[in-house]
């Protein structure tokens, strides 16, 4: 099944309607969710119609445009949807400022979204320099175009390296309970990039066998000391990579860096519904008496990170990140 280029984007705008590629339905079917109000955008973010920090931020920018007649209420509504991803808060504050400056909200939202796409392409160009022929690279969760509007963060280097003719393979963790690894495979399949989906608990096995040469993941929030939050299970992969002397990289745009938060332990971790564990595609797979804890993210300390792949280049320390961020602002 091949899809049109636009259909591989997380969403797009048609006049004052935002059309989302409904990620709850992938990879089995291509369906769309349309939003014409801030409340509908908020639902799309909260219910994971759209997911991934940069895409959530861009969606929030359009939510602000839809609610530009009452930016305070709209901003509060959108910020309450998901607490961990920093791009959401960055985008709402950015749009609030632009609207208060008298800039047309739709032009501002378009600009914000195009800027994210451009930044992700630059991330891909910098990250592709790390990829060599015959490598096998592990990634966790989905950090492709579906998570960033287009190109991706962790997947952007794969796309650019593939376009450059490099031959390599991507191992994608399944990333339970939402199985975002299948979305990564869906994107890689349509790009013609070699891949394999592996169980979450198989990553250590392949690292120990020396089958994995590098790890690249995305991030939902990177804080002042370089610690970062990403999809649950990322911390495990970072520890395993360190144990096996495998370089571990984080790919993210500057909008994901939160320097108002000092360290990873200060990040609010979203807890999601127990039904994500007890049900699959609406089908109950566990008895009623099962007690569930379902954190959506974990925090990886900066000491495990070899480099942060950003639109500014591959940075190796929080100080470099801070300098790059100040340059952007």
Assigned CATH superfamily of the largest domain? Translation initiation factor eif-2b, domain 2
- Helix segment count? 12
Largest beta sheet: what is the strand line-up?
6-5-4-7-10-15-16
Largest sheet at a glance?
A: 7 strands, mixed
Structural class: alpha/beta
CATH class descriptor name of the largest domain: Alpha Beta
| Unreliable spans | 1-7
Give the domain tally.
2
The appropriate CATH architecture of the largest domain is 3-Layer(aba) Sandwich
* Global geometry: globular
CATH third-level topology of the largest domain: Rossmann fold
Structure notes:
This protein has 329 residues and is an alpha/beta fold. The chain folds into 2 domains: 114 residues, Four Helix Bundle (Hemerythrin (Met), subunit A) (Up-down Bundle), CATH 1.20.120; 203 residues, Rossmann fold (3-Layer(aba) Sandwich), CATH 3.40.50.10470. It is 38% helix and 18% strand. The protein contains 12 helices and 16 strands. Strands 6-5-4-7-10-15-16 form a 7-stranded mixed β-sheet, sandwiched between helices. A 4-stranded mixed β-sheet has the order 11-8-9-14, with helices on one face. Strands 1-2-3 form a 3-stranded antiparallel β-sheet, covered by helices on one side. A hairpin with a 4-residue loop joins strand 8 and strand 9. The protein is globular, with a radius of gyration of 19 Å. The chain starts with 10 loop residues before the first strand and ends with a helix. The N terminus is likely disordered.
